[in-house]
């Protein structure tokens, strides 16, 4: 922060505090011709009269105490531009660092113990599962839900349908490095009728009876001509190396209605799984992986 902005913040902050002090003093000052305490002021409305009853002294002193407190706080702690306060306190420095160091001494040995175990063994440990669930609720439930059932655009982690693979090491890689989906939009090279036919063909791959036979035949040709098989495969079963979903099952990440499938084909999809490796570290990711892996093993 530059010296100018630091000075500007100090000026505004202290100016407001002293303005509050002046306002309290000004409003409590007795004015010439003012009614005596307890007398009516002459203001009437709808049969009601206003009496001159100032605030209780204890209430007034609360304002003064608040002002004094604010000045003492700004002397001791950061709040005035670049001035760090006489205690030199920092939420990201002394206190945060001490708390993180204390937590590391307590919990790091536990995480390291589980990190040395195979993921499938950690998935069977009751204590590890409790820790993994708490981590999941803190870092993953916002997208995948507290029950890991997912939502539109967010995979269900309790089934055995995996975009990038459900083996322990594949799950760990997904959590560590994240994933970036890339379903390209086709509306610029396929007209509306073609997108309709493609949608009907995709529906037919999973055995949907409502797919129109004529449109399915045309859609199959477009599926090949537009390179859909490059990601989803000739048989439509997908490719976990690319995160291309299996189109032959009944699992639909964005929904299975005709309109939703058409929207996916026309506009593409670009879902993102954020990387957690730098934030959580390898040992915590190992434990979290075991919990996620266990969710699909219960069925």
TrEMBL record:
Q: Per UniProt, where does heme c 2 bind?
A: 183, 228, 231-232
Q: Entry cofactor note text?
A: Binds 2 heme C groups per subunit.
Which keywords does this chain's UniProt record carry? Cell inner membrane, Cell membrane, Electron transport, Heme, Hydrogen ion transport, Ion transport, Iron, Membrane, Metal-binding, Oxidoreductase, Repeat, Respiratory chain, Transmembrane, Transmembrane helix, Transport
Coarse class of the primary localization is membrane
| CC annotations in GO | plasma membrane
Q: Where are the transmembrane segments?
A: 6-24, 58-80
Record-level GO BP terms:
oxidative phosphorylation; proton transmembrane transport
InterPro entries in alphabetical order: CcoP_N, CcoP_N_sf, Cyt_c-like_dom, Cyt_c-like_dom_sf, Cyt_c_oxidase_cbb3_su3, Cytochrome_c_Oxidase_Subunit
Q: Name one GO molecular function term.
A: metal ion binding
Q: Name the pathway it acts in.
A: Energy metabolism; oxidative phosphorylation
- Enumerate the residues binding heme c 1: 140, 143-144, 273
Residue ranges annotated for the Cytochrome c domain, each copy included:
127-206, 214-296
Q: Which cofactor does it need?
A: heme c
Q: Where in the cell is it found?
A: Cell inner membrane
Oligomeric form and interacting partners: Component of the cbb3-type cytochrome c oxidase.
PANTHER family documented for this protein: CBB3-TYPE CYTOCHROME C OXIDASE SUBUNIT FIXP (PTHR33751)
Q: What does this protein do?
A: C-type cytochrome. Part of the cbb3-type cytochrome c oxidase complex.
- Which protein family is it in? Belongs to the CcoP / FixP family.
Tell me what this protein is called.
Answer: Cbb3-type cytochrome c oxidase subunit
This protein's species is Thiothrix lacustris
């Amino acid at each position: 922060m530059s010296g100018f902005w630091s000075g500007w913040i100090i000026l505004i902050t202290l100016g407001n505090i002293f303005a509050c002090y002046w306002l309290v003093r000004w409003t409590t000052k007795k004015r010439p011709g003012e009614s005596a305490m307890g007398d009516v002021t002459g203001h009437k409305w709808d049969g009601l009269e206003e009496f001159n009853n100032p605030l209780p002294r204890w209430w007034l002193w609360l304002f003064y105490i608040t002002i004094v407190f604010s000045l003492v706080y700004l002397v001791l702690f950061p709040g005035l531009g670049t001035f760090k306060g006489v205690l030199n306190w920092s939420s990201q420095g002394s206190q945060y660092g001490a708390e993180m160091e204390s937590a590391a001494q307590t919990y790091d040995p536990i995480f390291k113990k589980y990190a040395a175990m195979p993921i499938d063994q950690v998935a069977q440990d009751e204590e590890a599962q409790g820790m993994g669930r708490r981590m999941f609720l803190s870092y993953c439930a916002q997208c995948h839900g507290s029950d890991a059932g997912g939502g539109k655009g967010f995979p269900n982690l309790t089934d055995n349908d995996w975009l990038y693979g459900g083996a322990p090491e594949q799950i760990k890689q997904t959590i560590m490095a994240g994933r970036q989906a890339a379903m390209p939009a086709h509306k610029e090279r396929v007209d509306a009728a073609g997108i309709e036919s493609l949608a009907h063909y995709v529906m037919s791959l999973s055995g949907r009876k409502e797919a129109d036979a004529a449109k399915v035949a045309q859609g199959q040709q477009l599926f090949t001509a537009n390179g859909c098989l490059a990601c989803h495969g000739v048989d439509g079963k997908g490719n976990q190396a690319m995160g291309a979903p299996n189109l032959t099952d009944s699992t639909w990440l964005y929904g299975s209605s005709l309109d939703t499938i058409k929207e996916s084909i026309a506009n593409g999809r670009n879902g993102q799984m954020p990387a957690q490796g730098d934030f959580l570290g390898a040992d915590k990711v190992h434990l979290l992986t075991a919990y996620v892996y266990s969710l699909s093993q219960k069925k």
